[in-house]
Amino acid sequence: MSKKRIFKKSLAIKLIHEGCELVDIQKNRKYPTYDIYVFKNNDNFQKVLAQLS
What is the pLDDT, as a whole number, of residue 20? Predict the structure, then answer.
């Protein structure tokens, strides 16, 4: 399974609302107060990400 990491919380929230599958939430090692959102990288994710960008 391919995964894609998203560093921006607002983008992650939009992806979740569009039906993308959130796999994990990790702490950012460089900036511990921030999180990294890990999504399953599939066709739907690519399509939604392209629309939001």
Answer: 96
pTM: 0.92
Tokens of 45: 């994710």
Whether 20 contacts 5, CB under 8 Å: no
Q: Please name the helix (run of DSSP H) or strand (run of DSSP E) that holds residue 49, with its range, or none.
A: helix 43-52
The range of the structural domain enclosing residue 19 comes to 3-52
- DSSP string computed for 1-48: --EEEE--HHHHHHHHHTT--EEEEEE-SSSTTSEEEEEE-SHHHHHH
Count of structural domains, the chain: 1
